[in-house]
Structures are given as C-alpha cells and as structure tokens.
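Hey, I'm writing a tutorial for new members on how sequence and structure tokens pair up, and I'd like a real worked example in the thread rather than a made-up one. If someone can provide the structure for the chain below, I'll link this post from the tutorial.
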Amino acid sequence: MSKEDYYRILGVERDATKDDLKKAYRKLALRYHPDRNPGDREAERRFKDLNEAYEVLKDDQKRAAYDRFGHAAFEHGSGGDGGFGPGFGTGFADIFEEMFGDFVGGRRGGGRQSGRGSDLRYNLEISLEQAFAGAKTTVRVPTGVKCDACKGSGAAGGAAPETCTTCRGAGRVRSQSGFFTVERTCPSCGGSGQMIRDPCRSCGGAGRVQREKALQVTIPAGVEDSTRIRLAGEGEAGVRGGAPGDLYIFVSVASHRLFRRDGADIHCRVPLPMTTAALGGSIEVPTVNGERARISIPSGTQSGETFRLRGKGMTILRHQARGDMYVEAVVETPVNLSDKQRKLLQDFADAGTEEKTSPESHGFFAKVKELWQDLRE
C-alpha cells in the first residue's frame, strides 16, 4: 500500500514555511498523542505518521530529497541521488522533547511521575459582620486522605513498592519504529516507575481513601469578596505517598439588609421624617460593628444629602485602620394623616410662603411657566 503524502499528513501546502510545519505538527501531535488516546490504534497510527512526516520536512536537506524523489528517497537501498539511510534521523523522542518538554509526564531519559494530589476548591460565604471583624470557621471537605492501613504506600501492610521491571523505574519506555524512537508512558506502572505486588485492601493500592476532612479556617478582618485563601497541603492526598495538593477557599461576602460595601467604605440609606428634615435635630444610626453613631441633622435637609462618619466603615485588610461610613438621607413624606395634621399642613400651604420654604420647586415651576409663555408667543 502506498504511503500517504507527508504534506497531506500535516495538513499543509507544499510551500509551507518551517513555522507553518511546526504549528501544524504541534497541533496534531497533541491531538493524537497516545497518552491522550489510550488503546486507540488509529490515533497511534496517525501519531506515528505525523512524527515521520515532520522529521523529514523540518530538515531542509531531507525535505529537498523528498520533494524530488518522494518516499523513495528514504527507502533502504534507494539508488536515487541524495537518498538517506534509516540511521539518518534523530528520532521522535528528540523532536517531541524539543517542542513540548515535559508536557506528557517527564523529560527524556526518565524520572517518575510525582503522583501529587489534586488541588481542591471550597466556596465559603460569610456575613458582612464576619468580613469586618474576622472569624474562625470550620469547613468540611470531601477529599482523598492518606490510607491508614498502608500508611499511604498502597501496598498491604505498608510494604515499600517494588521497582517496575518493564521501565526499570524510569516511568517511560521506548520502542523502535524504523529510524524513529518513540517514547511513551510505561504501560505496566502507568508512569510511576514502581509496582505493587500485593495491593492494600483498604485503598485498592492507591494509597488514599475518600473521607470528609474537617478544617478550621481563619478569615482575616477586612477580607473582601472573591478573596482566595490557600491552605497548603490540605488538598487531595497524593497517590502512593505522593505530595498532597492544596485547598483553596474562595470567600464570598453575603449582601446585607442595611449596608452596602464599597471597598473600605460603608453606605447606608436612612429614612428621615419630614419634620426632622425641616426643623433639624439628631438621629442614631447603626454601624457595621454593632455600635450606634449619632448624626446631627441641620434644618432644611433634603433627600440625597450625605453625612460622612469618619472611621466607621470596614476594617482595612492588614492595616490598623477603618474606612468611612456614608449616610444618605431620604426624606419621608407623611402618610395616614389625622384631620388635625392635615389641617396644619393645609394652613402651612395657605400661608403662601413657597418661595422661601421650597425654593427649588418654586424656581422649577417658575421656569416651566416661562417656557409655556414662550411657546404661546
């Protein structure tokens, strides 16, 4: 059966640059790599063809020979000028190492996989008061923990694992395909470089079991929404004694029924009786730390006017300081008036003092009258 054209295998035109070849090879090699397609013979074949095609086309001399003689240039015993024997190539392991480094588990020449446990995420919601003062809380995380029966080794009785006889502890094996050397994860040990003859019955040889772990988390005062807290080594236990992962606590601050946070500042809308706004007086407002603060209200206060309370806001993270609190006055119109109250308000309206007592509304409607007059003319 005739071999497929190298350019077609890589999906490039015959005038493709070296950069085009490299990009095409990288994309397809990642797609068809055996570690990503275990047991898929078609992917393995495609992967082998990709390596062979790129090995030839990336080299100017071999590419020139291929363009002139085709596949015959590399057949053993070829009589064509410029032919290359099977020992000409450098091998796929060098190609993949050059382009991907240790992307698929360990650099060329060995080194076993670490078996490190996965990092875990826990979403924790706290109140605004807890964010202000800081808190200590307990979280329960379902995760893989070290097996007590085998002490994390994965072997019955805690025995030490044996060196894999297939890869001799390297975690990688090589196979020869023509003039290519292909390196892949050891099928016997899965890349760990070790084998367990008698697996632990409690964990099945993994060295870890699933349990719920209770951890105490310290929330610092002044923490903000979406803050991430890292607990090193509190993630999933590693496989067969591997290093544990980390636990990341993602903090969210719940909405408050009275306060709105803006960085280190606190905002609060306070309804103000019309009489207090008109005559002046004082009111007490709550603060985020549970205390009370008194505000003097000047006579004639309008809706939307804001009063600043210095140092009554949120705790600033890692600083011995606090933000400010801003109180916005919302003047409330009286409702459910008694006959006496209604008469008093009517007498006030009949006094005809709107120009002095309500200058803003009086000025607005005066401008409206001028506008209507201009439209009639």
